[in-house]
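BACKBONE GEOMETRY TOKENS
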Amino acid sequence: MGISVLKAGMLTTLQDVGRFGFQKYGMPVSGAMDSLALRLGNMLVGNAETEVALECTLVGPALLFEAGQLISITGGDLSAKLNGKAVPMWKPIAVSEGSTLTFGKAVRGCRSYVCFRGGLAVSQVMGSKATYLAAAIGGWKGRALKKNDFIPFLSIDNRATENVNWRLGSGLYPSNPAKSIRFTEGPHYQDFDDDSRKSFCSDTFLVSKNSNRMGYRLDAPALRLSTPRELLSSAVTFGTVQVPPGGKPIVLMADHPTTGGYPVIGQVIEVDFPLLAQLQPDDRIRFERVTLEQAQHLLRSRSVKMQLLKRSIALKHEK
């Protein structure tokens, strides 16, 4: 028993937290663009944080449940409805057999995550169930979902008809009405000229429509090195901000390559990855410089809150 895909949506894939340990062979980590939303969604239904879920982008799918199941919907708001009625986010939702979950267009953010109690029955590739589209591996047949796909549940939740009257508070998942993204200086930050460094910290950047899971291309006045030079390729990661010869920055995302040869002006801090992941094409953002110590403090603080939340949710599921 599982879900039948009635409509695929714009880009719906199966993602977990990623494929670790293979970057030295050129294999990206991949995984969820917004791993915080995925982790929180899995917590809500009592799963391990790393369990696979659906990542729905901009326009979500329509799914028929062929068995009752406990689910959660987190991340961006893609106008989810259950049997035609608006369904709340950030809480466990009991879905009965024969129900249809549909999504419309994004009204806030870009990506929603649908987590299922017990997970989905797909095989691991290199220790992960994440879909890496460029190599056609992982997830469901290594590709985005299509109409008439059927994905089995790993297990059936017998409590899927019970009412759940609690939800996640708004304090842990970040809100970003100003669309400000914090970064630490990259290894080549000081190699850019004064105007470029000032521009990077003060100008507004437009997220190009030519953006995807590999990276976001940003449009603004070009950034320039003080003295143009050739660079050796070096390791890059999620949130690395590279500047190619044209001067338009690229923020690397979940499907980023393992190395790059462009100068790196900055590194987006980890606690702001969800803010990046939920940006839509044509959104405008600004960058704010912080120190490495500030970035580490923010990450430690979030980690403590996550652990406390995990214990609290586990107690609720035990009742």
The mean pLDDT is 92.
